[in-house]
Amino acid sequence: xxxxxxxxxxxxxxxxxxxxxxxxxxxxxxxxxxxxxxxxxxxxxxxxxxxxxxxxxxxxxxxxxxxxxxxxxxxxxxxxxxxxxxxxxxxxxxxxxxxxxxxxxxxxxxxxxxxxxxxxxxxxxxxxxxxxxxxxxxxxxxxxxxxxxxxxxxxxxxxxxxxxxxxxxxxxxxxxxxxxxxxxxxxxxxxxxxxxxxxxxxxxxxxxxxxxxxxxxxxxxxxxxxxxxxxxxxxxxxxxxxxxxxxxxxxxxxxxxx
Length: 258
Fold this sequence. Notes:
The chain is mostly helical. The chain has 2 domains: 23-149, no CATH class; 155-248, no CATH class. Helices cover 50% and strands 2% of the residues. It has helices spanning 23-42, 52-71, 80-87, 95-100, 104-114, 129-136, 141-149, 155-175, 179-182, 224-245; strands at residues 213-214, 217-218. The chain starts with 22 loop residues before the first helix and ends in a 13-residue tail after the last helix.
């Protein structure tokens, strides 16, 4: 992984900035992820019309979300692309934006775990974006005060989460390599049974061959759809944990080279 460039004269420690983002900003990023996950969730399938009451209710919900973020100064965390996606009228969110932000709930899940608000789902299960949002206080009074009362997990815990997430992400990437290389790597030597799993993280499971288990079966037998879903999930979680550890202050600048 290429180390980040120095910014504003800040020293680097082991390729990361010496401290995580400020707590209010961490909360703002979590809420931005919740807003994006909600935006994608309520968007109707392309070409599917909505009846007038449903359209009005969806528009009101999206406006409430935008107003809530802005009213608590959390919209400052939004990138230009994120802001545009949230501003898009119901039924007009393009396919590229839907794909880009489809896994925003996974980022929110990592941050919710880091803030001790929720457990982190297992590596082969999607995060429940609505439940994660509720645990953070999305659109509620609890969410407006989270930045002043939450406790971020220790750097050791975040580092352990990075090790585990990175290992699974690496294995999924290797599994999608050309056939000649697909069988040359394995999780067998990682020994997850000896890993010090942080509280709230589900230890990964190995199959009978000692390699990573995915959806209850050996990764060698996983379908392309299972692998794609796993890659998308782990990519989003990897970005979130790297951001929390200070690889970059800019969420979109996080580098996932493996």
